[in-house]
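Student: Hello, beginner here. Can you help me understand the protein record under this note? Any guidance would be welcome.
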Amino acid sequence: MIRDMVRDFAEKHIRPVAAQLDENKEFPHENLKKMADLGLMGMNVPVKYGGSEVGAVAYSLAVTEIAKACASHAVTTAVTNMVAEVIYEFASDALKEKHIPKLCNGHYPAGAFAITEPHTGSDAANIRAMAVVDGDSFVLNGRKSLITSGEQAGVVVVWAVTDRTARKGKGISAFLVEQGTSGFVIGKAETKMGHRASSMHELVFDNCRIPRECLLGQEGDGFKIAMVELDGGRIGIASLAIGVGSAAIEYATQYVKEREAFGQKLSRFQAIQWMIADSYTELEAAQLLTLRAASLKESGQGFTKEASMAKLLATETAKEVALRSVQMLGGYGYTTEYPVERYLRDIIGTTLYEGTSEVQRIVISREILGR
């Protein structure tokens, strides 16, 4: 029922405006508020905080349906859900009551997850932003880069070093920082290949004073918190990739059923038929693996390896499917008149978000080898 509801909404409200929003690099405020009203911004947090509490499987299916219509809507949805979850899992009751309802009901247009810095992305334990205790506050200094929804986020989860004497990864803490806090500055906007209706900004923290109660978990828990949340985030990005890849091959399949060459429909050629067969088969397998990871999460079991496997397979498969879809349209696939070029641009980002494909292979091998 949730999948069908989201599919219907996406077809009516998202797909018709997706190309224009992409071209204009316009953040979809109106649609995101409607999606919040449908309960899509807090799908894994309790009803008592304004969430819909439907579970990770329904969340995965919903993100896939949103992404079929527009990857930018989907990535904003995925990150906002991540932020709601991390607050629910690690924040004080007061912070939960203050921020989660605003994320869930759309009062905050989005949430943001700020860990990447100009000099480090995959090596999250090597961040340099510092937070120093000063009375009943932490004073935060540093820069974060490539932060999805950084400009629109009502609240941002920020990671910083709080103990520079600790060994790598052990002296990092996580904080909630509200938009408008003194010393919190929105930096330059990034110009991206895809997901262009989703904003991405540099965030600057210049003697930004944060109340001590905005600390998530215990001081020094930050790296552990990040790794826990990235596991769930990978399910979201895998689901997103499956949606975009499905949209690409579905469009290309319809195109070759109508287009003729050498006296027959393109769909009559074996080369095209095999592209279609491979694409649908591989996407189906990727979705099953993604739903398995979501099911493990929903049942409270460990899912680190499965989430990384799903993210790796889904994003790389969807990238290949999008390339085939462009090829199936020939020269028209390379033009902006047809949506498959946008699908290809959008899918590239999924191989980078929440850890690159290479990082997923590191995670998977470490889980298997027990390191």
Observations:
- Strands lie at 110-114, 130-134, 137-148, 153-161, 172-178, 184-189, 200-211, 215-216, 260-261, 264-265.
- The chain is about 50% helix and 15% strand.
- The chain has three domains: 2-110, 113-220, 224-369.
- The domain at 224-369 is CATH 1.20.140.10 (Butyryl-CoA Dehydrogenase, subunit A; domain 3).
